[in-house]
Amino acid sequence: MISSILSRGQVGDDDESGSIGRLDGNLLDTLSILPYRAGYEEYDQELIQKRLTKGMLKGVVSTSALELGLDIPHLGTAVLIGVPYSATSLFQRIGRIGRHGKGRVYIIHSGSFLDEVIFRDPLRLLNRPLSESALYLQNPRVQYIHALCLARLGGEHDQMCNMLGKSVDESDFTSPIVWPEGFISLCKSERIGEIPADLQAMKAEAGDDPNHTYPLRDVESQFRVQLKQGPIQEEKGSLSYSQLLREAYPGAVYYYATQSLRVYKIINKSRLVLVRKEKRYTTTPNMIPTQVFPNLTSGNIYEARRHGDLVVFESNIQVRESVVGYKEKRGSKQPESYHYPLNEHRMNIYFDLPRFTRNYFTSGVILTHPSFNNMQEPEINTIAKLLYEAFLMSIPFERQDIDFAVGKFRINRPPIVQDGTRFVAIYDKTYGSLRLSGHVMKEDLMKKVFEQTNEIANLTDYRDNEMEEFHISSGVIGILTDLLQSAQDTGSPISHFFLESQKKDDIDETLREQVIRPGSVGLAIRNDNQEYLVEKVFYNPKSNLNEI
């Protein structure tokens, strides 16, 4: 969106025909205002920084990527769209301005809950907590990424030994450093090629360059965007899987440094997004509600408590995000909708599945209350949104790391969980989890979050539906009041929440359900959890396994 806004009127986009502007190496040298974000090609990033540092640009429109690590002397004015969620981000952004003279920082009300709260009491702007540091080394994907970088043959350990003139034993790995539990054994497994099955796909994706395959802020390998059209083949940066769902899904018009590019094919296995030149149209994804599947089996619950009628627990979860099509706007015309699967003859876009989906495993906090089952869908969605915003205002993590959803339990775990019972989930968006959402389980923070939720809900502008798409009804206010009263109650652990699964001999055969059958959908856990459709199930007498 940043690139889309900046491109208006700069390279021949002055009518609804959306003519294709120039797409060459001189573009970033000629524009006076440029976009900036993480994921650009290194050459493009350096060019933008160089022009900005030398005062050769009138301005730059950036994500948070510019708030750290750059000393740019000529920046005199900053315009922040919305209040940063943590004081740390605010101070970092202010620190970019006026480093060699006077500077000004403007904060524009974006219409968010946080902005409304701060604008009503501006003194709160500078009295908010600093961002929390987040380090969860038990994430197996985090551990394996570091094991790949450090202990693989030819990795950083071997390189350091060579520099020091020490011999390298290819069959072993030792270290005097006290590492997190399990890390040394994982390094040794990597040395001898005996890595767990669920990490083998990561090994294949990493190749000989895990340091660049897996960026610092993500534990999933990046998708490479490649312009491939006729004789042209150029690299156009990289995107995470979650960015793909927002910006570069099949059929999307993706903007890279003001250049408009059509996504015509995604090769999931090789992490490649193929794009071509496109007119300056805009597209938005049609997403179905995110699905959350709490894992209530033994060993997957971190903590469970009851606060009056409110039950709260942190567990491992599966998250499913799906794009089912998109809307495309061309000039002043009404947006047109396109649904998956796409006909390959429509603009030569190739996608033959009903959904473009990301499945991943992480952890989250699940909240359930009897009142949730009697609410209308818009009302419980409103409560989930309010809790999410209050969480980020009370516990200042980055918005991109936390998300929320509404769901229903699909199993029975009496007396706490009943099939069909509604819940609200606040969860980590990082694959494997960083256990960020679990902070709300601290009793003092849970109370603070519900207090903040009620404060937001009672803002009159929002209750009158002037600034948000949903209405905060009196029923919602009443339920939030009940939730706050429950949160103020001293929580009691639920030791019996996870009853061990029934013994096999006690299982009622009538309760069995066939889960692998023609027409069912599965996940290929060794291929990044891609979905597949089961067409046929049959028995192969020459094999020890049934085949699908």
Care to describe what's here?
- This is Helicase C-terminal domain-containing protein.
- It holds the Pfam family Helicase_C.
- Residues 1-141 form the Helicase C-terminal domain.
- InterPro entries: Helicase_C-like, P-loop_NTPase.
- The chain has 548 residues and is α+β, with helices and mostly antiparallel strands.
- It folds into 4 domains: 2-126, Rossmann fold (3-Layer(aba) Sandwich); 140-213, no CATH class; 288-326 and 355-493; 510-548, no CATH class.
- Helices cover 25% and strands 24% of the residues.
- It has helices at 2-7, 27-30, 42-53, 87-94, 113-120, 140-151, 156-164, 183-192, 200-206, 210-213, 241-247, 377-394, 443-457, 460-463, 474-488; strands at residues 33-36, 59-62, 77-81, 104-108, 223-229, 232-239, 253-256, 259-267, 272-277, 282-294, 301-307, 310-329, 336-339, 356-368, 402-408, 422-428, 492-493, 521-524, 530-533.
- Strands 10, 11, 12, 13, 14, 15, 16 and 17 form an 8-stranded antiparallel sheet that branches. A 5-stranded mixed sheet has the order 6-5-9-8-7.
- Strand 5 and strand 6 (232-239) form a beta hairpin.
- The two termini are 43 Å apart.
- Residues 8-23 and 499-507 have low confidence and may be disordered.
